[in-house]
From TrEMBL:
CDD domains: REC_PhyR. One of its GO terms (biological process) is phosphorelay signal transduction system. PANTHER family: CHEY SUBFAMILY, STRESS RESPONSE REGULATOR PROTEIN 1. It comes from the Bacteria. SMART domains: REC. Keywords: Phosphoprotein. GO terms for molecular function: DNA binding; sigma factor activity. Coiled coil: none annotated. Pfam families: PhyR_sigma2, Response_reg, Sigma70_r4_2. This is Response regulator.
Length: 244
């Protein structure tokens, strides 16, 4: 593989980890998917596809061949298309190429997947965010996704207290809480008592996708659209694990 493609591949790795973790529901399974896919890609490259798309392609293939059964209204293909177009922000044409679909089939599948998202079960969401304006925006997005607010916490202490009292079905957490501490620390304390899926929100996702330590399974980038939150929430609640 030429040096330039290897460099492009290295730059794509954090985003490949995000996709694989969200698809599989855990850091360990997602990172294993990336490692397996990387070995395959280096051995059998396709210069017709950009390295980032090629990596998504191998991850999708490996996951499809070993995917556990999922509940809910969405198939594995539905989930892959939703994640590629919303979380990874690929065009429909690129997502179709990654999954080996013609564009018309991809569009029809995506429309069906959107309809399936609307029927997903509601849950109570704990928001951990120290900026009041951002917290209000996230509350509005959560409501638009059809979910309820369990509470809004600006500090580690508040987050643990609200989680203990309300037992939410999902946690949506910022990483940096300013003077209030660290979102990941708050989540770690909560997960010692409760098994709750978690989505972390950050403006710098690549910093949480190194594969070098315990990291989130679900990461979305600020600012985000309601659809991105809806898809991440569906994956976290219906098929994912909080942290591994």
């Amino acid at each position: 593989m030429p040096l330039s493609r290897r460099q492009d591949l290295l730059r794509a790795l954090p985003y490949a980890r995000r996709y694989a973790r969200a698809l599989s529901g855990s850091q360990s399974r997602g990172d294993l998917l990336v490692a397996e896919s990387l070995r395959e890609l280096i051995a059998v490259d396709d210069p017709a596809l950009r390295p980032r798309l090629r990596l998504y392609q191998w991850i999708s293939r490996h996951y499809t061949s070993s995917a556990p059964p999922h509940g809910g209204d969405l198939t594995v293909l539905d989930r892959q298309l939703l994640l590629l177009t919303a979380l990874e922000e690929l065009s429909l044409a690129d997502a179709a190429r990654v999954l080996g679909l013609d564009e018309a089939t991809a569009r029809a599948t995506l429309e069906r997947a959107y309809a399936g998202l609307k029927s997903c079960a509601q849950t109570n969401v704990l928001i951990i965010e120290d900026e009041p304006i951002i917290a209000m925006d996230i509350e509005e997005l959560v409501h638009k996704c059809g979910h309820r607010i369990a509470g809004v916490a600006a500090t580690e202490k508040e987050a643990v207290e609200i989680a203990t009292r309300t037992r939410p079905g999902l946690i949506l957490a910022d990483i940096n809480l300013g003077a209030g501490g660290d979102g990941m620390t708050a989540v770690s304390q909560i997960l010692q008592q409760q098994n709750i899926p978690v989505i972390f929100v950050t403006a710098y996702p690549e910093r949480l996708l190194t594969g070098e330590r315990i990291e989130p399974a679900f990461v979305i980038t600020k600012p985000f659209e309601p659809l991105t939150l809806a898809i991440a929430t569906y994956q976290a609640v219906s098929g994912g694990l909080p942290l591994t």
